[in-house]
Write a structure and sequence with these properties.
- The complex is a heterodimer of chains A (468) and B (564).
- Chain A has helices at 19-28, 71-83, 91-101, 120-123, 128-132, 140-151, 162-176, 178-191, 215-226, 229-234, 237-271, 278-283, 298-301, 304-327, 334-342, 345-356, 363-373, 403-411, 423-432, 439-448, and strands at 29-30, 42-46, 48-49, 61-65, 85-87, 112-113, 197-198, 389-392, 396-399, 420-422, 463-465.
- Helix content of chain A is 50%, strand content 7%.
- Chain B has 564 residues and is an alpha+beta fold.
- Chain B has 23 helices and 14 strands.
- In chain B, α4 (167-180) crosses α6, α6 (203-220) packs across α18 and α19 crosses α21 (503-510).
- The longest helix of chain B is centred in the C-terminal third of the chain and has 23 residues, at 379-401.
- Classes of the chains: A mainly alpha (468), B alpha+beta (564).
- The interface between A and B is large, with 61 and 59 residues.
């Protein structure tokens, strides 16, 4: 490790789950939406916006909606017919059916709605600015690529980056699913001027094994697996996207939570006069979110207050480490940096103060983590079955993964679709994510999700069958 | 298994050991009695034990849970005969080995193969004892180690099943016989534990109790080990006293009642003691829900508390009703009539309930009749007492007859372990593939293509929807793996999905009526699995040959999609 300071970009919360795939797609394709604007303005594109946002123009932003409406529906219907989907009686009705079917989840109080990123054209039916509603949203795609690289083992040097993996999966989907193939072509011919232009992504450079056993290594391994042809072929199109969103949400939320824990661990070691090297510190991080079993009381299971407090306080710790690292660039690696930090009395005093000071202002980071992990809508047609945390009243959030979260994460512990693994392997994968559920509680959840059947005394040998 | 062998251990410490040795003539047998017992530094003691046995040319028998196999298989380093055997048992792939385990067969109950050593082959046999329920007839293996089929007895067959042929039945009868020979307490009429012992002297009551436990396995979706069976028997005999009470206090715990006690005090005392009565204790009638959820026995048996589902009717009828004798006993005004006597007057002469009823129950019944007279309690208190005693008699009646909650579903669960009756087959079709018009089986099965939830279109569609049309020619078959049964669905002979046929699915399927979907308290558990089952119809390989439709309101039109 070169430095204990990781220099990760600062995140903001992601308003719709589809935004993460769109962020990766935006790194892989350039696209012309055919909307005029002057040089000082940028385009904020959403598949569907509420009326106030739909075609608003500000000095900085030009809002644009891609969902075909009114006469656009006829044009989209014609495109569908030209691309190979035709109704023998009602092409306009077919157009309305498809535009409705590809609309993503509607979030509570959300101003925009994304298209389900089933293909490149649908992923690009919105852009990060449109989903964030700001001129300069954080580079979500860049953040995900950084996490993907951090988790890449040294043997992955030169392999495709996360966005390229997704493109490969999307291409595979187009190649094996005739409906998707036609809808993608029709969307491309309707939403854009000309086809999206593929941007060559650089392969992975600078891989190492230093972040093995962290959420980053889980993300890398599972994303490569999910984007493989075997998993694309095994999953229905919508389920694949939901699983992809689940993986990206977990990587995003738990990746930043890991960063919080990392700086805190470094700071405590420096303040406490520890002698651990960077690798030892990295291996000694505790669980990122305490996951108590379902029989415990809500207040015992709550992670909201403790995690929020920890996240808010982390900013001052991180800033002090950042400032120190930037002012002391002469150290070739983290090990020597740590030695120097421990011998710097002034710096230790700063860290001591930062660790004991009241929580600072770091709402963006907290919201980014919280909304990535939180179950959005609990019930109804837009119910989120892929959340990890569930709110109880205004005050508490508890680890209570949705049944499809369990099915997706457990299935991705299996080597291939249609195969099985055991709870021991799943626990190992969850530990990598910083989650340590109790065995009995996990088995009950697996049984409820229909992917495992407990057996007395089987312990970690309880078999898990892949959901697909 | 070692009765005829001579112990060959250097000393008997009186403590449970991981391993014992036996000798018979020139042959020596090493028995790992419990592979969970291990030293703190032992990384793979089972592997080491097998290696020792191979090196010394001993016979070897190990009792191992599956978790140990996985742990040791993951902890292995290096190649050895023991490592190969453990990998074979755990079904974990390993590096090429000089000690291959080859050939043989691997069935759900028994697996056999040969460990190839340089100078000889060693036969390896694994018996998966967790495959079969302890409440079924003990599976038999012949001299050639061929396994006889595992047969799950149907609910109605259980009334005539030889309980001694069930492992759990043999244990229960042995315990009951031992206790029947024990000294009687000073005041048997008011001692609930003596009442329990007395009830279990009846083979019919034993049979009913075993059926209740088997029902608990069906509903909870798990099987009891001997540990849980022991726990259930102990709970049925003594409630939670072993956990809560000093053994020395037991001898004076149930003194005779003072004849001068008021009617209220007498009933209150007997009601308190009645919590230990088998039928109350086995379902945790007086145990808080949180404690039931964590108790290894009650978390299963609490699910089948008969009062959760007291269906009117008689056991003599062809349906699944059973509770009428009890309900009728409480149907009139509470007078001096005894509900217990009313039930006994109305049931058949050979009803096992007669053998379950003891002097304790008669004393409780008399106390109930007294306390419910107008001069002792007000209406509110009387209603509460009547409700409690109604539940008490319902449980006692149900347990002695082997009646659990959800009796119909349990019956179907047991039946579907070996066949698929036409009624449940039709209900499963409705649940898994509801047609667009519930009253028209030919109206087609339509799945929206990109919805987050795979819910078929039933009824008119408010917004136009692009849907996939499933084939009308559907076959449903079952695949059996011990107690686990999987529903396989095929369209025109091509598999399109599979789903485990567990209690939750059966209950939900049986709530479907007239080809309309039903909903039960199991919805949260079943819906995601059913939706995943349906979603398997939407994978690319199955979409390739499908037809698509546009549904708008009531209208259905063809949609043509070009092939790739």
């Amino acid at each position: 490790m070169e430095s204990v300071y990781l220099d990760l970009a600062r995140p903001q919360y992601v308003s719709v789950p589809e935004g993460l795939v769109t962020a990766l797609a935006a790194r892989a394709f350039g696209v012309d939406y055919g909307v005029d604007h002057d040089n000082k303005q940028v385009l904020a594109v959403a598949y569907q916006s509420n009326n106030a946002e739909a075609n608003r123009v500000t000095p900085a932003l030009v809002y644009h909606q891609t969902r075909p409406m009114g006469p656009g529906l006829k044009k989209f219907g014609d495109k569908l017919a030209a691309c190979g989907i035709e109704s023998d009686a009602d092409q306009l009705g077919l157009s309305r059916a498809v535009t409705g079917a590809i609309a993503g989840v509607r979030t509570k109080d959300g101003k925009v709605r994304a298209a389900i990123p089933l293909t490149p054209s649908l992923a690009l039916a919105q852009n990060p600015r449109g989903l964030a509603g700001t001129r300069n949203p954080p580079d979500l795609g860049g953040i995900l690529e950084t996490f993907f690289l951090m988790g890449a083992p040294s043997a992955a040097e030169g392999n495709p980056v996360a966005a390229d993996r997704w493109v490969d999966a999307a291409e595979r989907r187009r190649a094996v699913d005739r409906v998707i193939h036609a809808v993608d072509a029709a969307a491309a011919g309707t939403f854009f001027v000309g086809a999206p232009t593929r941007i060559a992504c650089n392969p992975l450079v600078g891989t190492s094994d230093q972040f093995a056993g962290t959420p980053f290594s889980w993300f890398h391994r599972v994303w490569v697996k999910l984007c493989s042809p075997a998993w694309v072929d095994a999953l229905p199109a919508r389920v694949w996207v939901d699983w992809a969103n689940t993986v990206l949400r977990l990587a995003f939320g738990l990746g930043y939570l890991w960063e919080v824990a990392w700086y805190e661990r470094v700071a405590r070691s420096v303040v406490g006069g520890g002698t651990e090297g960077a690798d030892e510190l990295l291996r000694s991080l505790g669980p990122l979110l305490p996951w108590k079993d379902q029989t415990s009381g809500i207040s015992v299971r709550d992670v909201s207050s403790s995690t929020k407090w920890r996240v808010l306080r982390s900013n001052s710790v991180r800033e002090r480490i950042r400032d120190w690292a930037k002012a002391n660039r002469q150290f070739p690696n983290a090990a020597e940096e740590l030695v120097a930090m421990r011998s710097d009395e002034g710096f230790r005093a700063q860290l001591t103060e930062a660790l004991s000071a009241p929580p600072g202002s770091n709402e963006n980071l907290w919201e980014a983590i919280n909304y990535a992990l939180l179950t959005r809508e609990g019930t109804g047609p837009d119910a989120d079955h892929y959340g990890f945390l569930r709110k109880h009243g205004r005050r508490f959030s508890v680890p209570d993964p949705g049944v499809e979260w369990i099915a997706a994460v457990a299935s991705l512990s299996c080597p291939e679709p249609g195969t099985s693994t055991d709870v021991g392997q799943l626990l190992k994968d969850l530990r990598e994510l910083g989650l340590r559920p109790e065995l009995g509680d996990l088995v009950i959840r697996l049984e409820q999700a229909g992917v495992a059947r407990g057996s007395a005394d089987a312990d970690q040998a309880v078999a898990i069958e892949s959901a697909f | 298994m070692t009765d005829d062998l001579d112990g060959d251990d250097p000393e008997d410490t009186g403590l449970a050991q991981r391993k014992y040795y036996f000798r018979s003539g020139e042959s020596r047998l090493a028995v790992v009695n419990d592979a969970s017992i291990r030293g703190a530094d032992d990384r793979h003691p089972l592997v080491d034990d097998v290696n020792l046995a191979v090196a010394a040319n001993h016979f070897f028998l190990g009792c191992v849970n599956r978790g140990i196999l996985i742990e040791e298989a993951h902890a292995l380093a290096g190649d050895s005969a023991g490592a190969s055997v453990v990998r074979w048992l755990a079904e974990v792939e390993g590096a090429p080995t000089a000690f291959p385990v080859v050939g043989g067969e691997r069935g759900p109950v028994l697996a056999r193969a040969a460990l190839q050593l340089a100078d000889r082959n060693v036969e390896v046999v694994a018996v998966y004892v967790d495959h079969c329920s302890l409440f079924e007839l003990r599976p038999q293996v012949d001299e050639q180690l061929l396994v006889q089929p595992y047969i799950v007895r149907r609910l109605k067959q259980r009334a005539t099943t030889d309980t001694l042929a069930m492992p759990a039945g043999e244990l229960l009868r042995t315990v009951a016989e031992c206790l029947a020979e024990a000294d009687k307490p000073a005041a048997p009429a008011v001692d609930p534990i003596e009442a329990n012992v007395s009830s279990f002297e009846s083979l019919a009551v034993q049979r009913g109790f075993l059926t209740l436990l088997r029902s608990a396995e069906a509903v909870s979706g798990s099987r009891m080990t001997f540990r849980e069976v022991w726990g259930a028997i102990l709970r049925a005999l003594a409630g939670d006293l072993p956990q809560t009470t000093n053994p020395e206090a037991l001898t004076s715990m149930f003194p005779p009642l003072d004849p001068d006690l008021s009617a209220v005090a007498r009933f209150t005392e007997l009601r308190s003691r009645a919590r230990l009565r088998s039928s109350q204790a086995i379902v945790g009638a007086e145990v808080p829900a949180e404690a039931r959820a964590t108790d290894p026995v009650l978390r299963m048996t609490g699910l089948v508390d008969p009062v959760l589902d007291a269906v009117p009717g008689s056991l003599a009828d062809s349906g699944f009703g059973w509770a009428s004798p009890v309900l009728d006993a409480f149907s009139g005004l509470i007078t001096a009539a005894s509900p217990l006597h009313t039930i006994l007057d109305s049931i058949a002469g050979d009803d096992p309930f007669r053998e379950a009823v003891t002097d304790f129950d008669r004393a409780l019944d008399a106390a109930f009749v007294s306390v419910t007279q107008p001069e002792y309690v007000d209406d509110k208190a009387r209603r509460e007492i009547v409700a409690w005693y109604g539940d008490y008699l319902s449980r006692l009646y149900a347990m002695s007859n082997g009646v659990s909650a959800f009796r119909q579903e349990v019956s179907t669960w047991l039946e579907t372990r070996s066949s698929l009756p036409s009624a449940i087959k039709a209900e499963l079709k409705t649940l898994l593939r509801p047609t667009r018009a519930p009253n028209d089986p030919q109206s087609g099965y339509f799945l929206p293509l990109f919805s987050s939830r795979t819910v078929p279109v039933t009824g008119p569609s408010a917004e136009p929807q692009l849907v996939l049309q499933g084939e009308d020619d559907v076959q449903i078959d079952l695949v059996f793996r011990g107690d686990a049964v999987t529903v396989m669905m095929r369209e025109l002979g091509t598999p399109v999905g599979e789903i485990e046929l567990d209690f939750a699915l059966i209950r939900t399927a049986q709530s479907c009526a007239g080809q309309r979907l039903g909903v039960t308290e199991q919805a949260a558990r079943v819906s995601p699995r059913v939706e995943r089952f349906r979603a398997k119809r939407l994978i690319p390989a199955r979409i390739a040959k499908s037809e698509f439709k546009l549904i708008a309101g009531q209208d259905l039109t063809d949609v043509y999609v070009e092939s790739l």
